[in-house]
């Protein structure tokens, strides 16, 4: 009887250990509708990540942090990955980059009363006060313009702070992705305030975002291949397009 009990306990132990191996912990931040703890499935991007891994029998648990900390925690190797980032050279020093999650256009938001009709180069922006969000990639040239002082760029910790700065006319332009920008305005600000804002059609950058896997983890190479297989499957059978249609309809906001 004792031997039988021990065997049951051993089976239970190894079963739980196996399940723990299949649970992935990933850092992320608030960036509705792409990612949000308040949104259905955590938003479009986290839904895609979860489903891509689920197809390979993995579960995902997301840890939300401010974006700067999310990146730093991901780089330590205590988490399996961090979501979601541009795959720029400086990040490839510490991470492997997955297949693209989605394409994102960063545009300048501004008050409709601001005279901002045309720009084609950074030199055209010299007369404006520009706000950016800490730890966002944008472009190397943009950040260089801040360091050299050739552009008047202020850096804030969150997109919501930046929109408040815009409404208070402390800045003239604010950089954010189109879909996420309007989602944030509709969620956090009144309709009358949101109607005061528009965006310039010409993007500063159009880039793809990725799931980053830390190079200092032995399982990263295996996990990135598993994830890439999963997201390719989502796109091949139409599930990815189905999720994106739900994003455009605003379904992820209906938790």
Q: Can you characterise this structure?
A:
The chain has 255 residues and is α/β, with parallel strands linked by helices. The protein has ten helices and ten strands. Strands 1, 2, 3, 4, 5, 6, 7, 8, 9 and 10 form a ten-stranded mixed beta sheet that branches. α2 links the parallel β1 (23-28) and β2 (59-64). It is globular and about 55 Å long. The protein starts with a helix and ends in a 6-residue tail after the last helix. Mean pLDDT is 90; it is low at 4-19.
Topology, pairings included?
Blueprint: H1 2-21, E1 23-28, H2 44-54, E2 59-64, H3 67-76, E3 81-86, H4 89-92, E4 95-97, E5 102-111, E6 129-133, H5 140-148, E7 152-156, H6 159-167, E8 173-177, H7 178-188, H8 191-194, E9 197-199, E10 205-214, H9 220-236, H10 239-249
Parallel strand pairs: 1-2, 1-3, 6-7, 6-8
Antiparallel strand pairs: 3-10, 4-10, 5-8, 5-9, 5-10
N-to-C span: 49 Å
Largest sheet: 10 strands, mixed
- Per DSSP, the total helix count is 10
Assign the CATH class of the largest domain. Alpha Beta
Count of the domains:
2
Determine the structural class based on helices, strands and strand pairing: alpha/beta
At the fourth CATH level, what is the homologous superfamily of the largest domain?
Periplasmic binding protein-like II
Strand segment tally:
10
SSE string: HEHEHEHEEEHEHEHHEEHH
Principal-axis shape: globular
Indicate the CATH architecture of the largest domain.
Answer: 3-Layer(aba) Sandwich
Query: Unreliable segments (pLDDT under 50, ≥5 consecutive)?
Result: 4-19
CATH overall fold name of the largest domain: D-Maltodextrin-Binding Protein, domain 2
Estimated share of beta-strand residues: 15-25%
* Computed CA radius of gyration, to the nearest angstrom: 21 Å
